[in-house]
Amino acid sequence: MRVLCIYTNINGAHDDNYSFGLASILASARAAGHETAIEVVKIKDDYANVMHTMETFGPKVIGFTAVSSQFCFVKELCEKIKEKFPDVICVCGGVHPTINPHCVTECEALDGIFRGDCEGSFVDFCTTVENGGDYKKTDNYCYVKNETVRMNVLRPLLKELDELPFSDRDQYPLVDQMTYDCIP
Q1: pTM score
Q2: Contact by Cβ (8 Å): 16, 49
Q3: Which residues, in sequence order, are CB contacts of 67 under 8 Å at separation 6+?
């Protein structure tokens, strides 16, 4: 199944941000056999790039990540995506949804949010979507039902981070600008 991850950094103080969490999610999804792509949105004009990728890549799931200062842009872009691609499933993870899971009520276009470390949960979610199952039962997932936020159980943290695939450095567009002196 095709999964598009979107990292917004509009009006960000640092142009060279690399989201290790998102890169780890990408690597985990890819290791599980899902086809992945990423879009980094630095200015609102980049929304057009996202829409082009939606048309050419054809993802079933969109995974946003957000800190609080970026959630308003996630909402705006998510609404634009759902307007043109109503069947795509849009979710958001990251710091903002983790500390404020009720943010899912602020954006009707979001199908749900993930809280906490979600490499395993996101892979389970994607596999369930691909197989036509009830993805709303996934650990770490939150969604709105009957105007109430439903928060699923949090999966225990991994005790061995070596169980995760190495964070994505192939698709992430900012990696070319970075140096990894300490990584072989």
Answers
A1: 0.87
A2: no
A3: 94, 95, 96
User: What kind and span of H or E run contains 113?
Assistant: strand 112-114
Per-residue pLDDT reduced to its tens digit, 64-89: 999 999 999 999 999 999 999 999 99
6 vs 93: CA distance, rounded Å: 11
* CA distance linking residue 18 with residue 5, whole number of Å: 13
Query: How high does pLDDT run on average in the chain?
Result: 88
d(CA 103, CA 161): 29
**By C-alpha distance, which of 122, 54, 42 is closest to 83?**
54
Per-residue HEC secondary structure of 114-163 comes to: ECCCCHHHHHHHHHHHHCCCCHHHCCCEEEEECCEEEECCCCCCCCCHHH
Q: Please give the single-letter amino acid code of residue 118.
A: C
**Tokens coding 25:** 């999610």
Q: Please give the Cα distance from 125 to 141 (Å, whole number).
A: 9
**pLDDT band, very low/low/confident/very high, at 170 (cuts 50, 70, 90):** low
Bridge-based pairing of strands 2-8 and 61-65 is parallel
Distance CA 53, CA 14 (A): 24
The structure tokens listed for 112 are 């749900």
155 token code pair: 């999966």
Per the CB < 8 A criterion, the answer to whether 128 and 138 are in contact is: yes
